[in-house]
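Work Package 3 committed the consortium to producing structural models of liganded targets before the mid-term review. Because experimental data for this complex are still outstanding, the team generated a predictive model from sequence and the ligand definition alone, so that downstream docking and mutagenesis planning could proceed in parallel. The input record is reproduced below exactly as it was submitted to the modelling pipeline, together with the SMILES string for flavin-adenine dinucleotide.
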Amino acid sequence: MASGILVIVEQNDGKVSRIGWEALAAAQEIGAGLQQKISAIVLGKNAAAAAKAVAEAKISQVWFAENTELTNYTPDGFSAAARQVIEKAQPEYVFAGHSYQARDYMPKLATAFGRVFMSDCVGYRLEGGAVVFVRQMFQGKINADFSFTPQSGTPYFVSFQAGAVSSDKLEKGGNAAVADAGANLSEISIRTKVLEIFEGVKGKVDLTKAEVIVSVGRGIKEKDKLPVVEELAKALGAELAASRPVCDDGWLPMDRQIGSSGQTVAPKLYLAVGISGAIQHIVGMKGSRVVVAINKDERAPIFDLADYGVVGDLFEVVPALTAAIKEVKS
Ligand SMILES: Cc1cc2nc3c(=O)[nH]c(=O)nc-3n(C[C@H](O)[C@H](O)[C@H](O)COP(=O)(O)OP(=O)(O)OC[C@H]3O[C@@H](n4cnc5c(N)ncnc54)[C@H](O)[C@@H]3O)c2cc1C
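The resulting structure, written out as tokens with the ligand in place, is given here.
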């Protein structure tokens, strides 16, 4: 009978990705509730080194596969290696972080077992011995609860959105057994080839060293209005940053983005201007020492995290704040 949770932990050249730790943290919490053991698999170049780090989490077993066929990520290679481990381990659940890789190979992997893939979950809870997963619908406008029906059959394949689970929850201090998965990939056909790996953004601005950050969100409405926040950043001697929609629209360069798919910062002061406080944004700035939020919606989630909040129109509040700072400094 299938039992346990197997986590496919993402890593890059021996270093475990944050999204990998997050998936492990979710597995620990759900595993404790279901009284199931947790195991992990780490794939790719230098997976053995990453497996050692994973073994420090409180779980029972870590496998790794660093066959030459896995040196560069391919959906064929990764799904074949994971499949072999799943067939051996017979877990009830297979978890992964919903990374760019996972969204590529997990559907293939689930399909290989004739199963569905519960992708991009933003939450979960235990109800009567079963797990209820929360997913977003309609561009995140509403959430919906999902569970696997008895017809689904195990293993249940699940991925978690970046930032949906805090890696701070991860229980460390473990000493899991680490073993080579013994994956045999010599027979498999790898049908895509990585030609070159390069960074999307060259000459990236390093916001991680900034002491003060003024971060702007969609509340700014249009690119032409950016000078409102640029003035404030200048007056404070701060770096300018943004939420994802601002960068996606090309109003600021991608290397100014804060969040799960941008930079993670921990400045002394973080001013969030016209930012709602979506989980993917919060995960990139929650380590800030003092958070000030300016938002016209008093129910905006950013206020749950903010140390100081101003409910008001940024086009009134920000110029007044900039003028007051300039006056104090003069
Ligand atoms: C896989 C994935 C990864 C993601 N990665 C990131 C990421 O790295 N970083 C990130 O930021 N997001 C990320 N997102 C997107 C995230 O889910 C949110 O959509 C995004 O953070 C919302 O940005 P926002 O707060 O600027 O916009 P909105 O959610 O539209 O919020 C705008 C806010 O401005 C306020 N406002 C409007 N007008 C005014 C005004 N005149 N004065 C004051 N306040 C005003 C509104 O009340 C609202 O709260 C990701 C999403 C996914 C699915």
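Reviewers should note the following from the model. The chain has a mean pLDDT of 94. These observations will guide the Year 2 experiments.
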